[in-house]
Amino acid sequence: MRLRVWFHPSMALPVSIPEEEQWFTVNGRMKVYELMEEAENLVSQVTMAANDPHDLEITVLWNTKDHKKALNPDDHVDSHFEEGDKFGVYGDVKPVKVQPKGKPEKDKIPVTILTGFLGSGKTTLLNYILKEQQEKKIAIIENEFGEISIDDALLQQNKMTMAERVVVMDNGC
């Protein structure tokens, strides 16, 4: 069965859909929601090809011969349409947000967050890392909660030979 889609004019599609692409060849036993998905896919494909990607989310589909009756998405297509009929669609047209390309793995900077309860060994581990990993550049942001910097004093005394600068953020900043 061949059906033609009609897009409600208030939807403002970003590109016009060529007439030859408005025709769908469908199985009559197909469900109405599947026809909705095919129309949504058509909009996605045409807008992507025009380098203006948009998605359509159809909320209502109807036979244009009976424009006052929205169709149940679970009904079969052949219970509402005959060969050559036109179906109307209305829904939301939204631009697709294109994700920016991420950095390649080789350009990423590894980050380790060291947390734990009081006395769990955070400062001991940090001292070990600073002592054993001297060939690597390591930045430490210490987030002290309290008026007196305890961990800063507990770090081994030769920390300034391993670091250019130590910054302590106090009061839980």
Automatic annotation (TrEMBL):
Any single Pfam family the record assigns to this protein: cobW
GO cellular component assignments: cytoplasm
Alphabetical list of Gene3D superfamilies matching this protein: P-loop containing nucleotide triphosphate hydrolases (3.40.50.300)
Highest taxon listed in the record's lineage: Eukaryota
UniProt cross-references to InterPro entries, sorted A to Z: CobW/HypB/UreG_nucleotide-bd (IPR003495), P-loop_NTPase (IPR027417), Zinc-reg_GTPase_activator (IPR051316)
Protein's UniProt name: CobW/HypB/UreG nucleotide-binding domain-containing protein
Membrane-spanning ranges: none
Source organism per UniProt: Zooxanthella nutricula
Domain CobW/HypB/UreG nucleotide-binding: 110-173
